[in-house]
Amino acid sequence: MALKATIYKADLTISDMDRGYYDSHSLTIAQHPSETIERMMLRIAVFALHAGEYMAFTRGISDDDEPDLWHKNFSDEIEQWIELGEPDEKRLRKACGRAAKVWLYTYGGRAADIWWQGMEGKVGRFDHLNIFSITTETLAELAALCERSMQLNATVQDGTLWLSSEKGSVAVTPQRLYGSSER
What does the alpha-carbon distance between residue 144 and residue 54 come to, in Å, rounded to a whole number? Predict the structure, then answer.
C-alpha cells in the first residue's frame, strides 16, 4: 500500500520590508511521505522570503520536472524556480534554462557542505542562479513551530526572515554561497 501525503494548513501573514510586500496567504502544504518536517517547514519559510501573488508550491519531490516552488507569469513562463536540497549539475542547468531566476536553498549541515565543495567550481556559468545555505539549527527551530494547522507571521528585514507563531519565533538568515541578484 502506498503511503499518502500528510496535509498541513498555514495562514501566513507576510511583512517583507526589504521588497515592500505585505499580504496574507492561506497555504495547503502536502508533506510527501519521504519529506521531513524540517524540509516542509523550510518550504514555508522560503515561500515567505519570495512570496508574491503567483508564487506556488509544486509537486516538488513527487515530480522531477518541477521545483519545490515557482512563480509563473500569465504566459506560463517560469520567472522564479526555487529548489531545496543538493541537486546535481544537470538539474541546475535545466532549471537555469527554464527560468529567469533560480534560487537554491541547501540544508543538511555536513552533507550540504560536501555538496557545495563539489559544485562550487561548476556553477560559474549560471549567471541567474542564487545559492543559499540554511543551518541545521535553523531547521530544528523551524520544525518546532510545526502544527497541522498553523497561524504564522513572517517579517523580512535586511535579508533575515523572522517566522513566528504562538509556539515561538525563529530567525532564518540564509547564508549566500553564490549569486548576486535580489529577491
Answer: 28
- B/e letters for 113-129, b = 16+ CB within 10 Å, e = fewer, are eebbeebeeebeebebb
List, for residues 99-149, the tens digit of each pLDDT value: 999 999 999 889 999 999 999 999 988 879 999 999 999 999 999 999 999
Banded pLDDT at 59 (limits 50, 70, 90): confident
At residue 137, the 3 state secondary structure works out as: helix
| Residue of 143, 142, 140, 175 whose CA lies nearest to 160 | 175
Cell of 136: 541545521
Q: Which of 84, 87, 183, 102 is nearest to 139 (CA)?
A: 84
- Spatial CA neighbour of 52 closest among 20, 95, 96, 83: 20
Residue 153 CB neighbours (<10 A): 16
Specify burial of residue 144 (Cβ count, 10 A radius: 0-12, 13-18, 19+). middle
